[in-house]
Design brief:
The protein has 411 residues and is mainly α. Helix content is 64%, strand content 1%. It binds protoporphyrin IX containing FE (HEM). It comes from Helicobacter anseris. Keywords: Electron transport, Heme, Iron, Membrane, Metal-binding, Respiratory chain, Transmembrane, Transmembrane helix, Transport.
Length: 411
């Protein structure tokens, strides 16, 4: 039995019962972060804030949304947007956060690639992050279906149809996923369950896993310097704060993060109030109609690059499907496709730097052409960019990094 004494305050009361002081030390005041990092390392916390906003705004939307193919469209476009007080605000926050979170996820991923933060002990952090990316993609896709507009319906029809490419059992899988021969009420209700129940729980668990996996290897820093965290923390605790290369997560590091989050929030609420339309497709303001196929079907901007990889192999639907499947999982393999163990910023790794920007350029081209109709020259540019993507990942990256290793590291 614990030795319970009269507490001198709430903290002490909790500490006697739950060891809360130790917990705060482990999680906050004695969790060490390198000093040498810039604002790009705040993106993880920005993501956490955006996810919280999605969660809270989602709860408000859930009070009025009707997961029924006959009622869903009106419940969003009339009830929430026009009848419920401030319903429009919660919807705009939800839609803008859903789009902006992908901007920040891509920045967070590419910062990690730029600084080599996915290797030499940080592989599990990377894999946890990639799992978050995949589950967030499923969350966004299932959410996009819920307003039951034209694009919700037809994007769902196209994407669920992709399972038809699985040999032998493809047609049965499509029917199983849809719960019907076509996208219908049963499809809406199962995607609703995924969106509001199963996937958010998985995301919460993965965020906890991602944070836990940061504890042992610690976050990287701008120079990729391997720090002796024990020694540096001793210096800090011995009041040699200037000499120490680390700071505690709370209150020092988090105060910097809160500054970045605050600046970001100004930008975010500017979008919510004045430019929310960028996150909503005009075609989705027409109710779903299974007899009227839109002229041109495309997914949200964050899926366009992989959608273009699917369409890029226009001469073979099977090849397109295989390339699309690879595009979804290839980044999981990054720590092993990179054959060098140099952890340094790309600007100190000449050939890697060229590879990095070539990859960004290729992904931008894929995104732009993913939105254009696949006609004439567009088809060939899309094809070249898709082959380019596979080349950059499977051939160029191993070659560049093997060369780097043979040359003995950073030149
Ligand atoms: C909602 C999703 C995510 C959240 C809340 C999140 C949160 C965080 C936080 C707070 C950090 C520590 C500070 C920082 O570097 O920003 C971090 C680090 C990291 N994250 Fe994420 N992350 C998410 C998604 C991802 C994704 C999609 C990837 C990549 C596939 C990823 C890969 C990494 C890596 C490699 C690090 C270590 C960075 C370093 O050592 O410098 N994360 N994440």
């Amino acid at each position: 039995m614990a030795n319970i004494k009269k507490a001198n305050g709430l903290m002490d009361w909790l500490d006697q019962r739950m060891g809360i002081k130790k917990l705060i030390e482990v999680m906050m005041t004695r969790y060490w972060i390198p000093k040498n990092i810039n604002f790009l390392w705040a993106m993880g916390v920005v993501l956490l804030v955006l996810f919280s906003l999605l969660f809270i705004s989602g709860l408000f939307l859930l009070m009025y949304y009707k997961p029924d193919a006959k009622l869903a469209f009106d419940s969003v476009n009339y009830t929430i947007m026009q009848e419920v007080a401030y319903g429009w605000l919660w919807r705009h926050i939800h839609a803008v956060a859903a789009s902006v979170i992908f901007v920040i996820i891509y920045i967070h991923m590419f910062v990690a690639i730029y600084y080599g933060s996915y290797k030499r002990g940080r592989e599990v952090i990377w894999i946890g992050g990639m799992l978050l990316f995949v589950v967030f993609s499923a969350e966004a896709f299932s959410g996009y279906m819920l307003p039951w507009g034209q694009m919700s319906y037809w994007a769902a029809a196209v994407i669920t149809n992709l399972f038809g490419g699985i040999p032998v059992i493809g047609a049965d899988v499509v029917e199983w996923v849809r719960g019907n021969y076509v996208v219908a009420d049963a499809t809406l209700t199962r995607f609703f369950m995924l969106h509001v129940c199963l996937l958010p729980v998985v995301i919460l668990a993965l965020i906890a896993f991602h944070f836990y996996s940061l504890r042992v290897p610690h976050v990287n820093n701008e120079e990729g310097e391997e720090l002796d965290f024990e020694a540096e923390q001793e210096k800090y605790l011995a009041n040699k704060k200037k000499e120490s290369k680390v700071i505690p997560f709370w209150p020092v590091f988090l105060s910097k993060d809160i500054f970045v989050v605050s600046v970001f929030m100004i930008f975010f609420f500017y979008l919510v109030c004045y430019h929310f339309d960028f996150a909503m497709d005009p075609i989705n303001f027409d109710p779903a109609d299974n007899l009227k196929t839109p002229l041109h079907i495309y997914p949200e901007w964050y899926f366009l690059w992989s959608y273009e990889v699917l369409r890029g192999f226009f001469f073979s639907a099977d090849l397109g499907l295989i390339a699309f499947g690879i595009a979804q999982v290839i980044f999981f393999m990054l720590p092993w496709l990179d054959r060098s163990d140099v952890v340094a910023p790309a600007h100190k790794r000449k050939n890697f730097m060229i590879w990095f920007w070539a990859l960004i350029a290729d992904l931008i081209i894929l995104t732009i052409y993913g939105k254009l109709p696949p006609e004439g020259i567009n088809t060939y540019i899309g094809c070249a960019a898709s082959i380019g993507f596979l080349f950059l990942m499977f051939i160029a990256l191993p070659i560049v990094t093997i060369m780097e290793r043979k040359q003995g590291g950073v030149k």
